[in-house]
Every structure is written in C-alpha cells, then in structure tokens.
Amino acid sequence: MKTLFKKPALLPLSLALGTVLAAFAPAVQAQNLVELYRSAREYDAAYQSARSLYEANLAKAEQAKAGILPTAGLSMGASRTNFENNNPVADRSFPTQTASLNASQPLYRPGNWATYEQGKQQVVLSRAQLEAAEQDLIVRTSQAYFDVLAAQDTLAFVRAQKAAVGEQLASAKRNFEVGTSTVTDSREAQARFDLVTAQEIAAENDLRVKKIALDQLVGKTDAQPKGLLVPVELPPLVPADVNTWVRQSEDLHPTVRQAQANLEVAKLEIDKAEAGHKPTLDLTASYGVQRNPQGSATSPLDYRTNSTTVGLALNLPLFAGFATQNRIRETLSLEEKARTDLEGAKRGVALSTRTAYFGVLSGQGQVKALEAAEASSQSALDANKLGYQVGVRINIDVLNAQSQLFQTKRDLAQARYNVLIGGLRLRQANGTLTPEDLLLINSLLTQ
C-alpha cells in the first residue's frame, strides 16, 4: 500500500533547540557570577546594613577602653563680688578668676578591666556577624543567578517543544483534510499545542520575575548571567568525609563564634558583678589658679593663688543592700544560658552541615542518573523517528519522545545548578564559604 502523502521530516532536536536558545542570546555584554556578586556587594541593602552595624560595633567596642585610660578636664570661671560694710563704711566690688586642671588614672578597677575585655569580645562577635552576612549574600546572589539560567532553560525547552507540537498539529490537520486520519488526531494535537502554549506563558512570566529579582539584588537594570558550559564536569566534594566538614564548623562557623563570644562576655559579666565587693584605687592630680586682680574683701591688693594636689583615692564598698550578691547570681545564670546556647549552636551547625553534605551527594547522583536518562531518551527519540519514517510509529509517539527528552534536559540542567548551589550552601553550613569559592564556579561558565 502506497502512502498518499509523504510524512514531513522532523527538525533535528539539536537544531530546533539551538534555534530557540539563540533567541536568548543577550544583546548586551553578559556578566559572570563574580562580577554580579561584586555588584551585589556594593548595592545590596541587607549587606550594607550589616557592614554599617559592624563599623558601629567596632566604635562601640573602642569605647570600653575609656574605663582604663586616664581622664582629664579643664574648668574655668569668673565672678564679681559686691562688698558692703557699715563699720567702717566700705562699698566696693572685686572680680575673681579661677581655672583648674584635673586628671585621674585608674590603678585598680577590676570592673573596668572586665568591661574592656568585653569590648574585645564584641569585636569578635561583630566580625562573625559580618562574615555571616557576606556568606548569605554569596548564596543569595548565586541562587538568583542560577534561577535566571534555569528559567531561561525552561522557556527554551518549552518553546522547542511548542515548535515540535506545532509541526505535529499542522501534519494532523493536513492528514484530516485528505482523509488519512481522524478528527481525534487533530483535536489531540490541538489540545497538546494549547497546553504547551500555556506552559510557555508561565515560563515567560517566571523568567521575567527571576530577572527582576536578580536585577534588584545586583543593582543593574538588565543583568545578563553567563550560562553553564555543556557538557560540564562538576567539582567533587573535597574533603569527601562529612565528619571533617562538621569538625571545621565547630571552630569556623560564624554562629558558633558568636555563641562563643557571648559566653566569654557572660563570664566577664560575672567578674564585673564580683567587682562590686572589691575596692577601687585611682591616682588623682589637680592644678588650680585663682586670681583677684582688684583684691578681695580682706585685702585691696592684687593677688594670685596657685595650688597643686596629687594623691590616691581609695573606695571600699561595705554594704549595698545585697544588690551585689544578687547581681552575681544573675550573671551566673546568664553564663549557664550562654554555655547552653553555644552547645545548641554547635549541634545546629553540625546538623545543617550533615544535611547540606548529603544533599550535595544526592544531587551529584541525580546528575549522573539524569545524564544516563538523557542518553536513553535520545536513543528512544531516534528509534521513534525511525519508526515514524517506516510507518510503525505515529507522529504523537515521536512528540512524546521529544517531550520526554526536553523534560530530561531541563531536569538535568536544574540538577547541575542545584549541585553548584548546594556546594556553596555546604560551605555556608560549616562556615568556610568565602568569595573566592565563586572562582571555581566562574570557571564552569561560558566565556
């Protein structure tokens, strides 16, 4: 039996997909991940807020030095005295000018020294907070970057599928017109085409939203992220031992370091409370000048008085209504709370690190499985194309195979992005994430 109409040849998948992807070629210079991270670092409001808070905390920590450093003050004054006396009769006025310089140096103030040590711990705490904000910015930028790439891939695959379904719809209509197929084939193709059109609209909107989010993060009006090289060799996990990652987190994670600094501050707060029972000793010195240019009440002569004083000031607290004892009890309880918070922080970081580690391992396994599935889907598509040409397969079989291949490619691209982001999240989970970690990802992007 001869075929009345020759079945139209299907576009090669690589050609159709390449044509669709070409539509996404940016008209402006694309940026890599490091470039967009640098822009985000200068623009992101959350990071700039964290940096300003860090600088404020540094200045606040420096204020704690005041309690152990000398203080000095200069005071000056001028007055006029009216003097009246009835016996003998005298009525005169005279000015008085005074100036004094006072200085004090703490010699023994344990409470002030504890406050000074707390200030140094505040510096450690502030630095850990800033590092946490920087790590969060790295992950947020990377996530927004790959979200755009994933949305671009999804839209490209949907449009390629739409082109294939459109071809199948046109073929079904032609065959129905000449009577070689039923109306069911045409309606089925139309339904598939309408579904893919709806998916295209959703994909376009998703891409638009993802690009707006990236632009807002990096402060650019039309950020164009560079794509991932295909094929790509994803970096392995180094070290390949989850316990090593966990041990690193115990010393390096900003959350643990913040909890450790809070514990040290709590210990020093006990020292400050106990200082309420201890004496204080200060070295004091003063120099004063008093001048009466028109005399005084007792003498009409101009005279000047200079006085110098150097001494020690000792203060010994005796009883404060049990305030000191209760303050000590309070600080002991707060120290125990800080110790418990530190242990909780270590446990939470360890759990997050293990979860992130096995998440990356799972993602790598998914990538390998999807790579195998991609090859299998390509083989199935080739077989269906051949079967379609010889008449043992219908057009819908080819399109189903194409749809499966598109879906697999999209899932594979998303899985690769997830592995790269997962690696950054793993380093964030154990506290070792730095901007230099983006250089490895940058080497996997198109140049």
Question: Can you tell me about this structure?
Answer:
This protein has a four-stranded antiparallel β-sheet with strand order 1-2-3-4, with no helix packed on it. Strand 1 and strand 2 (89-108) form a beta hairpin. With 447 residues, it is of the alpha+beta class. The radius of gyration is 39 Å and the shape is elongated. It folds into two domains: 13-68 and 110-277 and 326-442, Outer membrane efflux proteins (OEP) (Up-down Bundle), CATH 1.20.1600; 69-108 and 279-316, Outer membrane efflux proteins (OEP) (Single Sheet). The protein is built from ten helices and four strands, in the order H-H-H-E-E-H-H-H-H-E-E-H-H-H. It has helices at residues 13-22, 33-43, 45-63, 110-178, 183-218, 242-252, 254-274, 323-390, 395-430, 437-442, and strands spanning 71-86, 89-108, 280-292, 303-315. Helix content is 64%, strand content 14%.
Text of the CATH class of the largest domain = Mainly Alpha
Q: What's the shape?
A: elongated
Widest sheet: strand order?
1-2-3-4
Here the CATH topology of the largest domain equals Outer membrane efflux proteins (OEP)
How many domains is the backbone divided into? 2
